[in-house]
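2024-03-11 09:14:02 INFO worker-7 job=invfold-0412 stage=load source=structure_tokens
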């Protein structure tokens, strides 16, 4: 696996004239428009990158975009890999390993999730301040000592300094923020009512099917993480989530999230 990661990174570095991004950004369903905020220098299709899995979900583009935001070098993943698509956890997190070798010093993640906290409303942005992992752990298997330790500490998993900065930016910009614990599930089913109640009881504020694997692997490599969730449905109400709904709500909240990401990147 390490060799494949190195091969992939070497290919990308050659294609991008050693661009060396400082910030890696993982864009979620419907938030692909964030790429409009990037002054694009290079764009690589996943299918052309050796070792990269290819995205299969409708609405997910599959490319890596390299460029500048507020003068900072970024790489954005337009399209991510989900465990429910049938990828292994090693495939789901492969791009994060590659981005580390390319040079990233921060990882920004966005996702769509179902609100569990009864004070949340559809379209809210939730800063993830912790998670509960209900998926297989991506670090199971031989430890890649080159990247990090066998037993990874998970304190401050979502970087408190980045959360504090985001909070003051949101104040300035009048962006309403929620904060909470993201429950990572395999999907692809949305939760039953009993499952939403269970997630609430164990301390969850929102549930989703991504992010946790990538965050665990980023923390294994000591990369500070900032993650934001768009609440696209409220699990404990009678509303039923479907994929189109999720995409539409994601787009609406996308502009607020983009503003937050751009200003935070400027202030890193
Ligand atoms: N549950 C899990 N994942 C989701 C949800 C949900 O309610 N909404 C958007 N992604």
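2024-03-11 09:14:09 INFO worker-7 stage=emit residues=268
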């Amino acid at each position: 696996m390490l060799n494949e990661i190195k091969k992939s990174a070497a290919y990308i570095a050659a294609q991008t004239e050693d661009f060396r991004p400082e910030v890696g950004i993982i864009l979620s369903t419907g938030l692909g428009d964030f790429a409009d905020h990037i002054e694009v220098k290079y764009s690589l299709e996943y299918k052309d990158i050796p070792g990269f899995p290819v995205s299969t979900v409708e609405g997910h583009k599959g490319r890596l975009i390299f460029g500048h935001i507020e003068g900072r070098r970024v790489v954005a993943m337009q399209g991510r890999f989900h465990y429910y698509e049938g990828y292994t956890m090693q495939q789901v997190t492969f791009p994060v390993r590659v981005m580390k070798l390319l040079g990233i010093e921060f990882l920004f993640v966005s996702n769509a999730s179902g609100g569990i906290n009864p004070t949340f409303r559809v379209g809210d942005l939730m800063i993830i301040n912790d998670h509960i992992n209900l998926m297989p752990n991506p670090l199971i298997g031989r430890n890649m000592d080159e990247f990090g330790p066998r037993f990874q500490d998970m304190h401050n998993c979502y970087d408190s300094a980045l959360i504090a900065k985001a909070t003051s930016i949101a104040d300035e910009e009048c962006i309403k923020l929620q904060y909470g614990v993201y429950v990572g599930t395999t999907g692809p089913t949305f939760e039953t009512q009993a499952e939403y109640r269970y997630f609430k009881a164990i301390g969850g504020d929102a549930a989703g099917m991504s992010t946790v694997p990538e965050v665990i692997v980023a923390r294994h490599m000591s990369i500070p993480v900032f993650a934001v969730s768009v609440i696209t449905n409220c699990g404990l109400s009678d509303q039923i989530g479907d994929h189109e709904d999720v995409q539409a709500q994601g787009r609406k909240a996308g502009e607020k999230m983009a503003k937050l990401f751009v200003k935070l990147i400027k202030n890193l």
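2024-03-11 09:14:09 INFO worker-7 stage=report msg="The domain at 2-266 is CATH 3.40.50.1580 (Rossmann fold)."
2024-03-11 09:14:10 INFO worker-7 job finished
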